[in-house]
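FAQ
Q: What does a multi-component entry look like?
A: The components come first, one per line:
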Amino acid sequence: MSAPLSGRRVLVSAGPTYEDIDPVRFLGNRSSGKMGFAIAAAARARGAEVVLVAGPVHLDTPDGVRRIDVRSAAQMHAAVVGALPADVYIGAAAVADFTPRQVSAHKIKKTAGSETLVLELVRTTDVLAEVAAHRQRPALVVGFAAETHDVERYARGKLASKRLDLIAANLVGAAEGGFERDDNTLHVYWDSGECRLGPASKHEVAAALVDLVARRLPA
Ligand code: CTP
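Then the predicted structure of the entire assembly, as C-alpha coordinates:
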Protein backbone atom coordinates (compact mmCIF):
# COMPACT_ATOMS: atom_id res chain seq x y z
CA MET A 1 0.00 0.00 0.00
CA SER A 2 1.21 3.53 -0.73
CA ALA A 3 1.87 5.74 2.28
CA PRO A 4 0.14 9.07 1.67
CA LEU A 5 0.35 9.90 5.40
CA SER A 6 4.00 9.02 5.85
CA GLY A 7 5.67 11.60 8.10
CA ARG A 8 2.27 12.83 9.37
CA ARG A 9 1.01 12.60 12.92
CA VAL A 10 -2.67 11.71 13.26
CA LEU A 11 -4.52 12.02 16.56
CA VAL A 12 -7.80 10.13 16.89
CA SER A 13 -10.31 10.01 19.74
CA ALA A 14 -12.68 7.07 20.02
CA GLY A 15 -15.31 5.45 22.17
CA PRO A 16 -17.64 6.78 24.85
CA THR A 17 -16.82 8.61 28.05
CA TYR A 18 -18.07 7.59 31.47
CA GLU A 19 -19.03 10.35 33.87
CA ASP A 20 -19.05 9.08 37.43
CA ILE A 21 -22.05 9.73 39.65
CA ASP A 22 -20.88 7.78 42.71
CA PRO A 23 -18.45 4.86 43.28
CA VAL A 24 -20.75 2.39 41.51
CA ARG A 25 -22.65 4.43 38.91
CA PHE A 26 -21.84 6.51 35.86
CA LEU A 27 -23.44 8.21 32.87
CA GLY A 28 -22.23 6.64 29.62
CA ASN A 29 -23.36 6.21 26.04
CA ARG A 30 -23.60 3.45 23.44
CA SER A 31 -20.50 4.27 21.39
CA SER A 32 -18.53 1.05 20.74
CA GLY A 33 -15.35 2.82 19.58
CA LYS A 34 -15.25 0.66 16.42
CA MET A 35 -15.32 3.60 14.01
CA GLY A 36 -12.48 5.47 15.75
CA PHE A 37 -10.36 2.33 16.07
CA ALA A 38 -10.90 1.56 12.36
CA ILE A 39 -9.85 5.13 11.50
CA ALA A 40 -6.69 4.77 13.61
CA ALA A 41 -5.85 1.49 11.86
CA ALA A 42 -6.48 3.00 8.41
CA ALA A 43 -4.28 6.03 9.18
CA ARG A 44 -1.50 3.74 10.41
CA ALA A 45 -1.82 1.59 7.28
CA ARG A 46 -1.27 4.77 5.21
CA GLY A 47 2.00 5.51 6.97
CA ALA A 48 0.96 7.94 9.72
CA GLU A 49 2.24 8.00 13.27
CA VAL A 50 -1.05 7.46 15.12
CA VAL A 51 -2.06 8.35 18.67
CA LEU A 52 -5.44 6.96 19.72
CA VAL A 53 -7.15 8.38 22.80
CA ALA A 54 -9.74 5.80 23.80
CA GLY A 55 -12.64 5.90 26.21
CA PRO A 56 -13.78 2.65 27.90
CA VAL A 57 -14.13 0.11 25.07
CA HIS A 58 -13.54 -3.61 24.53
CA LEU A 59 -11.32 -3.44 21.46
CA ASP A 60 -7.76 -4.47 20.66
CA THR A 61 -5.27 -1.73 19.86
CA PRO A 62 -4.52 -1.64 16.11
CA ASP A 63 -0.92 -2.67 15.28
CA GLY A 64 1.58 0.16 15.45
CA VAL A 65 -0.82 2.61 17.12
CA ARG A 66 -0.03 4.35 20.41
CA ARG A 67 -3.09 4.15 22.65
CA ILE A 68 -3.94 6.32 25.65
CA ASP A 69 -6.88 5.07 27.74
CA VAL A 70 -9.18 7.54 29.46
CA ARG A 71 -12.53 7.36 31.23
CA SER A 72 -14.17 10.77 31.55
CA ALA A 73 -14.68 13.75 29.25
CA ALA A 74 -12.23 15.74 31.40
CA GLN A 75 -9.59 13.02 31.00
CA MET A 76 -10.24 12.85 27.27
CA HIS A 77 -9.78 16.60 27.01
CA ALA A 78 -6.46 16.48 28.92
CA ALA A 79 -5.14 13.51 26.92
CA VAL A 80 -6.07 14.95 23.51
CA VAL A 81 -4.65 18.42 24.19
CA GLY A 82 -1.59 16.77 25.78
CA ALA A 83 -0.97 14.78 22.58
CA LEU A 84 -0.76 17.91 20.38
CA PRO A 85 0.86 18.91 18.07
CA ALA A 86 -0.56 16.76 15.28
CA ASP A 87 -1.18 17.24 11.57
CA VAL A 88 -4.69 15.84 11.82
CA TYR A 89 -7.23 15.49 14.64
CA ILE A 90 -10.19 13.18 14.06
CA GLY A 91 -12.70 13.44 16.90
CA ALA A 92 -14.64 10.20 16.62
CA ALA A 93 -15.28 9.87 20.36
CA ALA A 94 -18.78 10.29 21.75
CA VAL A 95 -17.72 12.69 24.49
CA ALA A 96 -20.33 13.40 27.17
CA ASP A 97 -21.79 16.88 26.80
CA PHE A 98 -22.69 16.97 30.51
CA THR A 99 -21.14 15.59 33.67
CA PRO A 100 -22.41 15.50 37.28
CA ARG A 101 -21.52 18.68 39.14
CA GLN A 102 -20.28 16.55 42.03
CA VAL A 103 -19.19 12.93 42.29
CA SER A 104 -20.64 11.50 45.48
CA ALA A 105 -17.88 9.92 47.58
CA HIS A 106 -20.39 7.36 48.88
CA LYS A 107 -22.97 5.27 47.08
CA ILE A 108 -26.15 7.32 46.75
CA LYS A 109 -28.88 5.61 48.84
CA LYS A 110 -32.62 5.59 48.31
CA THR A 111 -34.35 7.70 50.90
CA ALA A 112 -37.69 6.65 52.34
CA GLY A 113 -40.59 8.63 50.95
CA SER A 114 -38.64 10.12 48.05
CA GLU A 115 -39.62 8.89 44.59
CA THR A 116 -37.27 11.14 42.62
CA LEU A 117 -33.59 11.92 42.51
CA VAL A 118 -32.25 15.10 40.93
CA LEU A 119 -28.73 15.02 39.49
CA GLU A 120 -27.23 18.35 38.60
CA LEU A 121 -25.15 18.22 35.41
CA VAL A 122 -22.73 20.78 34.05
CA ARG A 123 -21.37 21.20 30.52
CA THR A 124 -18.06 19.55 29.68
CA THR A 125 -15.36 21.21 27.61
CA ASP A 126 -15.90 20.66 23.89
CA VAL A 127 -12.64 18.89 23.03
CA LEU A 128 -13.17 19.25 19.29
CA ALA A 129 -13.85 23.00 19.38
CA GLU A 130 -10.93 23.46 21.74
CA VAL A 131 -8.53 21.60 19.42
CA ALA A 132 -9.81 23.65 16.46
CA ALA A 133 -9.09 26.88 18.36
CA HIS A 134 -5.77 25.75 19.84
CA ARG A 135 -2.52 27.60 19.17
CA GLN A 136 -1.16 24.25 17.99
CA ARG A 137 -4.17 23.66 15.77
CA PRO A 138 -3.74 20.65 13.49
CA ALA A 139 -3.85 21.49 9.76
CA LEU A 140 -6.98 19.39 9.47
CA VAL A 141 -9.60 19.07 12.21
CA VAL A 142 -12.34 16.52 11.58
CA GLY A 143 -15.48 16.22 13.68
CA PHE A 144 -18.30 13.72 13.87
CA ALA A 145 -21.99 14.36 14.25
CA ALA A 146 -24.68 11.88 15.13
CA GLU A 147 -28.03 13.16 13.97
CA THR A 148 -31.52 11.72 13.88
CA HIS A 149 -32.83 14.23 11.28
CA ASP A 150 -31.84 17.28 9.17
CA VAL A 151 -28.33 15.80 8.89
CA GLU A 152 -26.82 18.36 6.50
CA ARG A 153 -28.20 21.42 8.28
CA TYR A 154 -26.98 20.32 11.73
CA ALA A 155 -23.65 18.99 10.42
CA ARG A 156 -22.89 22.20 8.53
CA GLY A 157 -23.87 24.17 11.63
CA LYS A 158 -21.24 22.28 13.66
CA LEU A 159 -18.67 22.62 10.83
CA ALA A 160 -19.01 26.40 11.08
CA SER A 161 -19.53 26.89 14.82
CA LYS A 162 -16.62 24.61 15.82
CA ARG A 163 -14.40 25.89 12.95
CA LEU A 164 -13.77 22.42 11.53
CA ASP A 165 -12.28 21.46 8.17
CA LEU A 166 -14.46 18.38 7.71
CA ILE A 167 -17.45 16.91 9.46
CA ALA A 168 -18.58 13.31 9.13
CA ALA A 169 -22.22 12.83 9.99
CA ASN A 170 -24.13 9.67 10.54
CA LEU A 171 -27.81 9.23 10.77
CA VAL A 172 -28.60 7.42 14.01
CA GLY A 173 -31.75 5.70 15.10
CA ALA A 174 -32.39 4.62 11.50
CA ALA A 175 -31.62 1.60 9.35
CA GLU A 176 -28.51 3.34 8.01
CA GLY A 177 -26.01 2.61 10.74
CA GLY A 178 -24.33 4.28 13.67
CA PHE A 179 -23.95 3.00 17.20
CA GLU A 180 -23.49 -0.69 18.00
CA ARG A 181 -23.26 -1.76 14.37
CA ASP A 182 -20.49 -3.07 12.13
CA ASP A 183 -21.55 -1.16 9.02
CA ASN A 184 -22.01 2.54 8.54
CA THR A 185 -22.71 5.38 6.11
CA LEU A 186 -21.03 8.75 6.57
CA HIS A 187 -22.15 11.99 5.00
CA VAL A 188 -19.04 14.17 4.91
CA TYR A 189 -19.25 17.93 4.51
CA TRP A 190 -16.64 20.64 4.08
CA ASP A 191 -16.78 24.29 3.04
CA SER A 192 -17.03 23.73 -0.66
CA GLY A 193 -18.22 20.17 -1.00
CA GLU A 194 -19.65 16.97 0.33
CA CYS A 195 -19.61 13.24 -0.31
CA ARG A 196 -21.15 10.05 0.94
CA LEU A 197 -18.99 7.16 2.14
CA GLY A 198 -20.74 3.78 2.30
CA PRO A 199 -22.92 2.04 3.16
CA ALA A 200 -20.07 -0.35 3.86
CA SER A 201 -18.27 -1.96 6.78
CA LYS A 202 -16.87 0.46 9.35
CA HIS A 203 -13.38 -0.61 8.17
CA GLU A 204 -14.15 0.32 4.55
CA VAL A 205 -15.82 3.58 5.53
CA ALA A 206 -12.89 4.46 7.83
CA ALA A 207 -10.42 3.77 5.00
CA ALA A 208 -12.41 6.00 2.63
CA LEU A 209 -12.54 8.78 5.24
CA VAL A 210 -8.78 8.59 5.85
CA ASP A 211 -8.15 8.71 2.08
CA LEU A 212 -10.33 11.83 1.89
CA VAL A 213 -8.41 13.36 4.81
CA ALA A 214 -5.08 12.56 3.11
CA ARG A 215 -6.27 14.26 -0.11
CA ARG A 216 -7.42 17.38 1.73
CA LEU A 217 -4.34 17.71 3.93
CA PRO A 218 -2.15 20.65 2.82
CA ALA A 219 1.20 19.48 1.38
N1 CTP B 1 -17.20 16.54 21.11
C1 CTP B 1 -16.09 16.87 21.86
N2 CTP B 1 -16.23 17.24 23.17
C2 CTP B 1 -17.44 17.30 23.74
C3 CTP B 1 -18.58 16.96 23.00
C4 CTP B 1 -18.43 16.60 21.68
O1 CTP B 1 -14.98 16.81 21.33
N3 CTP B 1 -17.53 17.65 25.03
C5 CTP B 1 -17.03 16.19 19.69
C6 CTP B 1 -17.21 14.72 19.35
O2 CTP B 1 -15.99 14.01 19.42
C7 CTP B 1 -17.73 14.79 17.91
C8 CTP B 1 -18.52 16.08 17.90
O3 CTP B 1 -17.99 16.88 18.95
O4 CTP B 1 -16.66 14.91 16.99
C9 CTP B 1 -19.97 15.89 18.16
O5 CTP B 1 -20.53 17.16 18.24
P1 CTP B 1 -21.64 17.52 19.30
O6 CTP B 1 -21.95 18.96 19.13
O7 CTP B 1 -21.32 17.04 20.65
O8 CTP B 1 -22.77 16.64 18.79
P2 CTP B 1 -23.95 16.25 19.63
O9 CTP B 1 -23.55 15.71 20.97
O10 CTP B 1 -24.72 15.36 18.75
O11 CTP B 1 -24.55 17.71 19.86
P3 CTP B 1 -26.04 18.09 19.82
O12 CTP B 1 -26.58 17.42 21.01
O13 CTP B 1 -25.98 19.58 19.90
O14 CTP B 1 -26.52 17.58 18.48
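Q: Is there any commentary attached?
A: Sometimes. For this entry: The chain has five helices and twelve strands.
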